[in-house]
Amino acid sequence: MNIDLKGKNALVCGSTKGIGFAIAQKFALSGANVTLFARNGDILEKLVSDLYTGEGQKHDFIVADFTKPEQVKAALEEKLNAHHYYHILVNNSGGPSPGTIIGAREEEFLTAFNAHLLSSHYLVQGVVNGMKQSAYGRIINIISTSVKIPLKGLGVSNTIRAAVAGWSKTLATELAPLGITVNNILPGATATDRLNQIIEGKAAKQNESIEQVSEEMLKEIPMHRFAQPDEIAYAACFLASEYAAYITGINIPVDGGRTGCL
Q1: What pTM was estimated for this model as a whole?
Q2: Burial category of 224 from C-beta neighbours within 10 Å (exposed 0-12, middle 13-18, buried 19 and up)
Q3: pLDDT value at 74 more than 90
Q4: Which domains are assigned to the chain?
Q5: For residue range 139-186, what is the model confidence (pLDDT) as tens digits?
């Protein structure tokens, strides 16, 4: 099976590092024209020049802060007004800070809601007409395995991620008649800055070493290792391809078997 995204325009959010940038790289290697979307323009300007262009692709970037949905909406509209459209959208944003749900503050919920749900919603509203007109649409949401089983110590994240999953499933049903698919990838513990943050927080709270906390987490994973960002990106490439045309409204855990349910 050869994943060929030549001629496709892909918008990849949260793409300055980790899973987002890994997806952008794999899309480019598969022939897509990639638009990176994140809040740090200096980093984006450097990274966009590192993407593969062997198929004659043209890559670019958009700058906006996902905690400010109106800014995200305006930045995308400016791009679309330049007669640009997208076949593929990857919604991805860094997760809320770890912490208990009982101790969560109101602003933590609102910030997470804006970054993960409202910004994603605006992006879908912006790209869906182009997908419809081009007769090709793939919306991929990078969420978390917590939509199946809440994760300890990630109270706000568990809450907001579940909301995004419900939004996504509803959207999949509404867009299916247009041939536009909407699917979720649920990464498990993945070797990114986000995982480091979680491990460091647990180590400090439990008065343990980073090595001890890492080993405890690895014991919960049947494969006994953390995922690499590329492994999440491979799943995204498949969902973005022609081969996934009849797959919509599903969650795909990429977690080494950690999630304790089907």
Answers
A1: 0.96
A2: exposed
A3: yes
A4: 9-188+227-254 (3.40.50.720)
A5: 999 999 999 999 999 999 999 999 999 999 999 999 999 999 999 999
Q: Which of 137, 124, 169, 95 is nearest to 239 (CA)?
A: 137
Instruction: Give the tokens for residue 84.
Output: 């640009």
Place of tokens 């797959």: 247
* C-alpha torsion 162→168→174→179, nearest 10: -160
Which whole-number Å values give the CA distances from 131 to 4, 92, 127, 136, in the listed order? Answer: 18, 19, 6, 5
Q: How far apart are CA 215 and CA 209, in angstroms?
A: 10
User: What residue type is 80 in one-letter code?
Assistant: L
Q: The tokens 């960002």 sit on which residue?
A: 229
Angstrom distance (rounded) from CA 16 to CA 167: 25
Q: Are strands 33-38 and 9-13 parallel, antiparallel or unpaired?
A: parallel
- Summary mean pLDDT of the chain: 96
Orientation angle between helical segments 18-29 and 229-240, nearest 10 degrees? 50
Question: Residue 97 pLDDT more than 90?
Answer: no
Buried/exposed 118-150: b ≥16 CB within 10 Å, e otherwise: bbbbbbbebbbebbeeeebbbbbbbbbbbbbeb
